[in-house]
Each structure stands twice: as C-alpha cells, then as structure tokens.
Amino acid sequence: MVRGKGRTALTWLCDVILVNLGIILSFLIRFSGKVPSTNFRAYLNIALWVSLISGSVLYFSGLYEEVEEESSFDIFYKIFISVSLSSIIIVALSFYLRNLPFPRTVFVIAWILEILLISAHHSYLFYSRQRKIPPKRLLVIGTDEEEFIRESKRQSSPKYEIVGLVNADAEVENLKRTIRKGKVQGVIISDLSLERSKLLDIIFGCQQEGLSVYLRPGLYEVMMGRLEMTHIGDIPLIKLKDEPLKGRDKALKGIMDFSLSLLILLFSSPLLFLIPLLIKMESKGPFLYRQKRVGEKERIYEIYKFRSMIENAEERTGPILAKDTDERVTKVGNLLRRTHLDELPQLFNILRGEMSLIGPRPERPVFVEEFKRKIPGYSRRFMVKPGITGLAQLYGNYDTSAEKKIKYDIAYINNWSLGLDLKILFMSMEIVLRMRK
Q1: CB 25 within 8 A of CB 128
Q2: 3-class SS at 137?
Q3: Which end of the chain is more exposed for a tag (fewer CB within 10 A), N or C?
C-alpha cells in the first residue's frame, strides 16, 4: 500500500525494526528473560545483515505498493511469504558462517513473532486507511448510470461514487473537460460496442489525465483471463493497467538495466576502441552518431550510435525512416547493422537513465507527431523507457509499419514481467550471435 514515498519509507523502516524486535523477544522467551551475553553479542554481529536481508525481501514482495482490490488476507500472505523467505536465507547464512552460538529455536520463535508483529502493524495501517479514504469518484461513459448508482448504494461501505454519465459519442476533448470540472478519479466504460478506434481514444485520453479506467466486461472479455477484477455491487468490472511499471518492478528493471549494461560494456570494451577506428578508416566524419529521440513521458533526449551511414546522410533526403536496403549505408556500417553493434553506445544512454535494455524502440520527434495523429493509442508507448531491443524488433523487420510495431509495444507494456524481459534479452542475443536481421 503506497502512501507517498516518505510514509512508505517510514512504514518500511518500522517493519525492519519489528523484525529485530521479534528476534530480541525470541531471545527473552527462549532464555526466560536471562539472555547470555555471548549469545546476544552473536546476534548483534549480524543485526545489520538481518536488517538488510529482511528489508530487501519485504520491499520486493510488493507489500508497500497500492493494490486497489487488496484485502487484509492479501497483505498477511505477502508478510508470511516475505518473513519465511528472509528467515530461510538468514538461517542458511548462519549455518554457512558457523559463528552463531545460540539455539536454532530462537529463529523459529522469531519467525512466528515477526509475522505477528508486522501483520499487526499493517492491519492497523490497512483499517485506518480504509476508514479515511473517501469513495472514488467515477464517471460512467455509455449507459446504465442508474444501475451503477443503485449497486454502489447497496454496499455497506461503498468504495465508489457515481458522479455522472457521459454519452459514448462525446468528443475526447469534451470528455476531458468534464473530467477536470467534476474532479473525476476514474471512468467506467459501460458500452463496449464502440468502434475500436473510438474506444482506444477514450481509454488513452483518460489515462493521460491520470484516471483509472474500468470496463464493464462481456463474456468474451472475461474469458481472456489474468485480468484485474473489481465490482460495484454485483456488477463485475475490469480495471485496466494505468501504470505498467512502478515500485518494486521499476526498481528491479532499473537494477537489471544498470548491472547488465556495465557488464556488457566491460566485455565489449575492445570493440569500443576497434569500431571507431574502422569507421574513420572507411569514411570521413565522426564515428559517433547523435540524434534527438522521444523517450519516457515524451521527454526529448540524445541517442548515441556508431555511425553506419555516410556523413550528412539526410542532407538531400530529409528525415526518412530506416530501410532494410539503404544506399547510404557504408560497408563497415552494413557489418555493424548485421551484428547490431551500431547500438552498443546506447548502453551509455541506459547508464544515464534515458533508456532500458528492453522496451519500445525510440522514434524521432518528427515521426512521433505524425504517428500520434494517425495511430490510436500511440502515446501509451511513452509510459516506459525506450529500449535497445523489444518485441517489435524480434518479430518485425526494418520495414515493419508503425501500426504493427505499436501492437507489439503495447503487448509488452501490458504484460511486462522480469521473465519477459529476460526472454527478449536471450532471444536478442541469439539474433546478434547468428547475425540475423
């Protein structure tokens, strides 16, 4: 449950303190209040490691993230798994070090106490928060406003308040004005018979306003599986993902990007010196190519690549999209493209926090403006950092249209997982090693 970064950090710190309190109380219980100094000193020697291990496992469990339909049991389950895992790691470490001269029963008692203490802490926070949070203000787009109002009133502690109805045929800009005026926090799209382009315009328009978007599903949508479900009374709703990467997921992806980029740069360092020499030997001009691209949240940044074309390649043609066969590509550049080594300098973009290893490929501002006008939902790709490789690069070609690439990009964003990133990374490595396009 996220309550702002400061309060989340304070909650996490309290949990780490409770972990250590559980261990101290377990000593007192095991030794009937008379703890031998030798035993307790052994704990003090590893207290920092206990705090780091337990704190890390608790953080990456997702305990501190906001989940709309999270119950008290869901919170207890995360605590149970986190404490159990951290306890196993600490016990394994103690056996490996063989320097903890006290009974292992201390760990068993501490495991029980830590679960009880942290669960009590989060139960208090959960129920305090439930009492303070006002109902979420929702706007119905389509029909059936009265049914939603009736069902919301039937709930003993309504989480949602229906504040109005907007016709599904309304223009997206008019819809945005209504949302701002009514201080709306989310929308329910109850009419799924809309044209796909219109439905996407409404969904992405509302998400740009920072709103939660819910769909009233038919049988087809329910059959899709792995959906985040909620309800108003007995009306089922599907909650669409509004922010694909946050909290622990964003931290994990960032750690993987940074560590793997450093590792690849270390092993490829001879190439970083050789490639510029080859480029300079074949053609005049700089060996490094810089170009403006659109990144996360539509921020403009400068991408780095080894130059694979003649100098000032767009002087006569103007900005054009890359092609599979391009006369402007040099011989060295053709080799770099076939091996994908022209992308190597983008690892520095990753270290600067501008890119990721895996994600939608960044486009130039001039093309982005065109695609945003022509392709519904194109802006959603800017919810994550652009990447060196992605699904569109695995399954598409140089000449694959932007309309097809955006489907791969949105599929990646909506289904992100660390496992998916690793799968894309290994598949991309195979393409590089086999020199496939």
Answers
A1: no
A2: strand
A3: C
The answer to whether the beta carbons of residues 290 and 304 sit under 8 Å apart is yes
What is the C-alpha to C-alpha distance for residues 321 and 316, in angstroms, rounded to an integer?
14
Token pair 């093309």 is found at 367
Q: Is the pTM of this model over 0.70?
A: no
Which of 56-70, 155-169, 341-355 is predicted with the least confidence, judged by mean pLDDT? 155-169
Number of H helices and number of E strands within the chain? 16, 10
Most confident of 66-70, 80-84, 396-400: 80-84
Structural domains of the chain sorted by starting position, each given as residue range(s) with its CATH number in brackets: 5-132 (no CATH), 136-239 (3.40.50.720), 247-433 (no CATH)
Q: Of all residues in the chain, what percent carry a pLDDT higher than 90?
A: 24
The lowest-confidence range among 23-32, 121-130, 170-179 is 170-179
Q: CA–CA separation, 379 vs 297, rounded Å? A: 9
Using the predicted structure, report yes or no on whether residue 90 has a pLDDT greater than 80: yes
How does strand 235-239 pair with strand 212-215? antiparallel
DSSP letter for each residue of 267-288: HTHHHHHHHHHHHHHHSSS-SE
CA dihedral sign, ordered 364, 367, 370, 375: negative
Reported as half-sphere exposure (CB side, CA atoms, 13 A), residue 333 has a value of: 23
DSSP, collapsed to helix, strand or coil, labels residue 61 as coil
The answer to whether 8 and 2 are in contact (CB under 8 A) is: yes
300-313 residue pLDDT tens: 999 999 888 776 66
3-state helix, strand, coil in the chain (%, to 5): 55, 10, 30
**Residue 339 to residue 433: CA distance in whole angstroms:** 7
What is the identity of the amino acid at 400?
A: T
pLDDT of residue 2: 44
Helical segments of 160-246, H only: 172-181, 196-208, 219-223
- Supply the Cα-derived Rg of the chain in whole angstroms: 27
